[in-house]
Write a structure and sequence with these properties.
This protein is α+β, with helices and mostly antiparallel strands and 613 residues long. The chain contains 18 helices and 20 strands. Strands 1, 2, 3, 4, 10 and 11 form a 6-stranded mixed sheet that branches. Strands 14-13-12-17-18 form a 5-stranded mixed sheet, with helices on both faces. Helix 11 packs antiparallel against helix 12. The longest helix is centred in the C-terminal third of the chain and has 31 residues. The relative contact order is 0.09.
Length: 613
């Protein structure tokens, strides 16, 4: 916010434009156009080359329909032909913005240097630049462009909504068209996770349906069409305060428009809006239960049937106060409401049961490294003894040590972020915790190698190769996770500690499998126990294969399908020469799990439906 200056915020919509002036003392005033807070975005090109805007354009449309443009906001590369004249839509948009600027200067009584323009969240750089050019042609200073859902979210905060950092909301913007966006509140502002738009699901579609319902014959494409549309628009808005209104129609008797007819015409459109909302929530990889609320804005959002339609779809919608001005008000306050609230938290406090995700891999690591050191197979004479080692067991001990350290570091960092009273971003604590835990995991793995080298009496190089190399990809993935957490690119639902909780079922199954494998390789081979010892090794191989699949796949049916062939393969591989391969297979599975978590929850694009224009 530029202190001491009047701020002008303009929400230029497809059908209507609203604007507010915000004063340095925190008060605000809506701009009125012919006594109404909404200025129609429609324009009309008169024969003398001048541009008529707003309500005057609609009144003149029945007389010169071929010069009337109801929706000037076109794609940036498109041009229009009006009355055999090639017209740049940029000039039409600039005419409306110029009208707004003149009204704002008249009300403010001074020049306005701070201008904010509300734009759809789905607009790309080309359309945003196009809008800046329109503002320049209108004589406005360089504007700050603010996404519509971000502006609405800022308005909600300014009006007292308690929204903690890390919470998710959806903004259902229903004017002439519909756009639904899902946002997450971060320490420095709001992040748009997903946004979907449908030009056929809004007030324009409802107007067309009403026209079809109430007129005995199609109004055509001339002046009669715009006269009918103007009458029905006025009647629809009047139903906000009256149960029924009389709507005059050109060349025909007046009709009575009541809420029942409006609901009948709007129902298919509102069902599409509810479906669009569900799709947007799904695109953000959330469910309605993950959201703090779904907030509806725009002129069409005033329809009571919208809330009922959303409720039938399992979504609780809330109509924002003054829904047509919410985006403009939020844009006017941008920079003042999205400050960090040091009393809020980003990370949900990890539950006590999350300690199991730390303890189990930690104990499994200690059990495996102990068995590795205490049960080597010694061959040769007393002077030339050679130790046959299960390198795969040492590898899995190092992998489990890293998993335990990362789980502990993430949980502790989340707890610290939850308890801190400093304005530092909670993501900084989480990222630092992940890096520190990864470093500790590397240190523990290196310690295993050194202790093993001293205990067995072999050079340390081989031990380091089987401890540090297999965990390097996992440590690299952890470093990327730490960067994402610190930069707040994307925080997963449930917090980082939940996202990075490695499956304990995989730890238990794989560790038990490797313990059995090592037992089968080193147990005393009495003749009457050979069968049982071999059987224990094969069972261990089966368990290791099943644990590997559990690390990579989460769906039960896929686990069942993939476990069978891999378990058979790992059981067949049980032998001294292949022991290292078995450990490496599990290390690869752990790295795959980390990469899957990173891609699925953090890096996968969440705006797949419409490319930027």
């Amino acid at each position: 916010m530029r202190s001491g200056q009047v701020r002008l915020a303009i929400d230029y919509g497809s059908a209507d434009t609203t604007a507010v002036l915000a004063w340095p003392d925190g008060t605000w005033t809506p701009l009125l156009f012919d006594g109404e807070p909404a200025l129609p975005s429609a324009v009309l090109l008169s024969e003398d080359g001048t541009t008529v805007t707003g309500h005057h354009a609609w009144r003149a449309a029945p007389v010169t329909p071929h010069r009337f443009i109801p929706h000037p906001r076109q794609p940036s590369e498109q041009r229009l032909t009006v009355a055999d004249t090639d017209v740049d839509p940029l000039d039409l948009v600039a005419a409306t913005l110029r009208h707004v600027a003149e009204q704002a200067h008249q009300l403010a009584g001074t020049g306005i240097d701070d201008v904010r323009l509300v734009v759809p969240a789905g607009w790309g750089p080309r359309r945003r630049t196009w809008m800046r050019h329109a503002a320049h042609r209108a004589g406005l200073p360089p504007p700050q462009l603010i996404d519509a859902p971000t502006a609405v979210a800022g308005h909600l905060l300014a009006t007292g909504l308690q929204l903690p950092v890390g919470a998710y909301i959806a903004v259902c913007d229903v004017g002439a068209t519909a756009e639904v966006s899902v946002l997450r509140r971060g320490p420095a502002g709001f992040e748009v996770l997903a946004t979907l738009a449908d030009p056929t699901a809004g007030g324009t579609a409802i107007d067309d349906a009403l026209t079809t319902t109430l007129t005995t014959s199609p109004p055509g494409t001339g002046g009669q069409r715009w006269a009918v549309t103007a009458s029905l628009r006025a009647g629809k808005h009047a139903l906000t305060d009256h149960p029924a209104v009389t709507v005059p129609l050109p060349d025909g008797p007046a009709v009575v428009l009541h809420t029942g007819l409006l609901d009948q015409a709007a129902q298919p459109v509102l069902h599409r809006i509810a479906h669009l909302t569900t799709e947007a929530i799904t695109a953000a990889e959330l469910t309605p239960r993950d959201l703090t609320g779904v907030y509806c804005v725009g002129g069409t959002a005033r329809l009571p049937l919208l809330a009922k339609t959303l409720t039938d779809a399992g979504i609780t919608g809330t109509l924002v106060d003054q829904p047509t001005l919410a985006a403009a008000r939020g844009a006017a306050d941008a920079g003042a409401t999205n400050t960090i609230d040091p009393t809020t938290t980003e990370e949900p406090l990890p539950p006590v049961r999350r300690a199991a995700a730390i303890a189990l891999p930690g104990f499994a690591s200690l059990a495996l490294v102990s068995q590795f050191l205490l049960t080597p197979e010694w061959r040769g004479s007393l002077m030339y003894r050679e130790a046959i080692l299960n390198w795969g067991e040492l590898t899995m001990a190092a992998v489990f040590a890293v998993i335990a350290c990362l789980s502990a570091g993430t949980v502790l960092a989340s707890t610290i972020a939850n308890r801190t009273t400093t304005p530092t971003s909670p993501g900084i604590h989480t990222g630092t915790g992940i890096l520190a835990a990864a470093s500790l995991g590397v240190a523990v793995s290196g310690m295993y190698a050194v202790v093993g080298s001293l205990y067995v009496g072999y050079p340390v190089n081989g031990f380091l190769r089987w401890t540090l190399l297999p965990i390097t990809p996992t440590i690299t993935a952890a470093a990327v996770m730490a960067l994402i957490a610190a930069r707040q690119w994307r925080t997963p639902a449930g917090g980082w500690s939940k996202l990075l909780a490695f499956p304990t079922s995989s730890v238990i199954t794989a560790a038990a499998g490797m313990l059995l494998i090592q037992y089968s390789l080193t147990a005393d081979r009495w003749p009457h126990l050979i069968l049982w010892i071999d059987l224990a090794g094969r069972v261990g191989g089966l368990l290791l294969g099943i644990g590997t699949v559990m690390a990579v796949v989460s769906q039960p049916i896929l686990r069942l399908i993939l476990s069978a062939p891999l378990a058979v393969i790992t059981a067949a591989l049980v032998s001294w020469p292949a022991s290292g391969i078995l450990g490496a297979i599990y290390a690869i599975a752990v790295t795959t799990w980390w990469l899957r978590q990173m891609w699925t929850h953090l890096l996968r694009p969440h705006h797949p439906h419409r490319p930027p224009q």
